[in-house]
Design goal:
The chain is of the alpha+beta class and 203 residues long. 35% of the residues lie in helices and 28% in strands. The radius of gyration is 28 Å and the shape is elongated.
């Protein structure tokens, strides 16, 4: 470590070096410098907070050892993950049990994109790849078969909502009078309680 680095270092580091102990690397020194500046900016921003919540929060964080904090964060993720994954129909999620893709010409199975299940659970749109068919099996027993290039979103709640903006779907809706199935095309909608029907939407 040269004299210039020593000037930028914490005095404790210079003392550690004099005693033959390990001195933090340049990366650690720069990181500590940036963290100190960030801390100062937070103090400047919230020093006028009459409630003092920032000071209380900061003091609490300083009392929690890093290993304990990391352990608590991991436990929180482990505890909440099952609730996020197994969203029921009342949460507004799309409770699909399986997604099967196949080549439109040969019928050979294909792998579904890893993010499809996540997007369907959140009621977001997915697009079926070209030359590929997709069959989505729902927890209520309904089946939605999508043709290539179909743009679809599914959201279950008090009603079983399916949105389609392009492509074609074959829907086998399980009978459920309390939770009708509604397919919205953007130009109109179809409402059923249990039947088999096909809808095609051209862009």
């Amino acid at each position: 470590m040269n004299e210039e680095q020593k000037k930028q270092s914490n005095p404790d580091d210079i003392l550690m070096e004099a005693r033959g102990l390990e001195v933090p690397s340049d990366v650690e020194i720069r990181l500590r410098h940036h963290l100190t500046k960030f801390k100062q900016r937070l103090h400047e921003r919230y020093e006028g907070d009459s409630r003092g919540w920032f000071s209380t929060f900061e003091a609490l964080l300083q009392k929690i050892p890093t290993p304990v904090f990391v352990t608590l964060a991991l436990l929180a993720v482990i505890i909440t993950a099952p609730f996020l994954h197994n969203c029921n129909s009342r949460s507004g999620a799309a409770p699909c049990t399986s997604i099967q893709l196949s080549q439109a010409t040969s019928g050979e199975p294909a792998a579904a994109p890893w993010f499809w299940e996540m997007r369907l659970r959140r009621g977001l749109w997915i697009t079926v790849p070209e030359n590929t068919n997709a069959e989505i099996q729902m927890q209520d027993g309904s089946t939605i078969t999508c043709e290539p290039s179909t743009l679809i979103a599914i959201r279950y709640g008090n009603e079983r909502n399916i949105g389609i903006r392009q492509g074609s779907i074959l829907v086998k809706a399980e009978p459920d009078k309390e939770h009708p199935m509604i397919v919205d095309t953007g130009r109109g909608s179809v409402r059923v309680t249990g039947t088999v029907f096909r809808i095609t939407v051209t862009p």
